[in-house]
Amino acid sequence: MSFTYATPVRFADVDHAGIVYYPRFFHLFHVAFEELWRARIGPRAYSELIDRDRVGFPAVRAECDFKGPLKFGDIAEIEVSVARLGTRSITFRYRVHRAADSEAPARERALCAEGQVVCAVVDLAAFVAIAVPERVIAMLADLVEHDPPV
């Protein structure tokens, strides 16, 4: 299973060639990450985890394979799943698709990028790795991939 968040490609996302500038895909990954928290446990839950509980998820590794262009005005559909739920880290997998265009039927849904971000789970007061909190494990349980993607 995956969580999907859709957003329009904005003018600030594209380069002079008119396509999404490659670092912006990592921004899309993070936006979908934030929206996952909002959808699953409420609009303030992620900031409360950081501010009150002092638990953070800094990226320690990030990679992306680019498959096709996204252009200004396209709708980006970002799928989030969990490739690995470790004891002190979480590997999030992202797939960015260009949504099918209802006004231009020839433009079908297409995979534009896929990547992974490994996040350590840390105590922000001491900045040391900690065990993934049980409530986070519960929130992500249905997103854990049991079969490798094809």
CATH topology category name:
Thiol Ester Dehydrase, Chain A
How does the overall form come out from the CA principal axes? elongated
Structural class designation:
alpha+beta
Q: What is the name of the CATH class?
A: Alpha Beta
Count, helices: 3
Assembly state:
single chain
CATH architecture: Roll
Helix content: 10-25%
The neighbouring-strand order within the major sheet is 1-4-5-6-3
Structure description:
The protein starts with a strand and ends in a 10-residue tail after the last helix. It is of the alpha+beta class. The strands form two sheets. Strands 1-4-5-6-3 form a five-stranded antiparallel sheet, with helices on one face. The chain has a three-stranded antiparallel sheet with strand order 2-7-8. Strand 7 and strand 8 (128-129) form a beta hairpin. It contains three helices and eight strands. It has helices at 23-41, 45-51, 134-140; strands spanning 3-8, 55-56, 59-66, 75-85, 89-98, 110-120, 122-123, 128-129. The protein has a single domain, classed as Hotdog Thioesterase (Thiol Ester Dehydrase, Chain A), CATH 3.10.129. The chain is elongated and about 50 Å long. Helix content is 22%, strand content 35%.
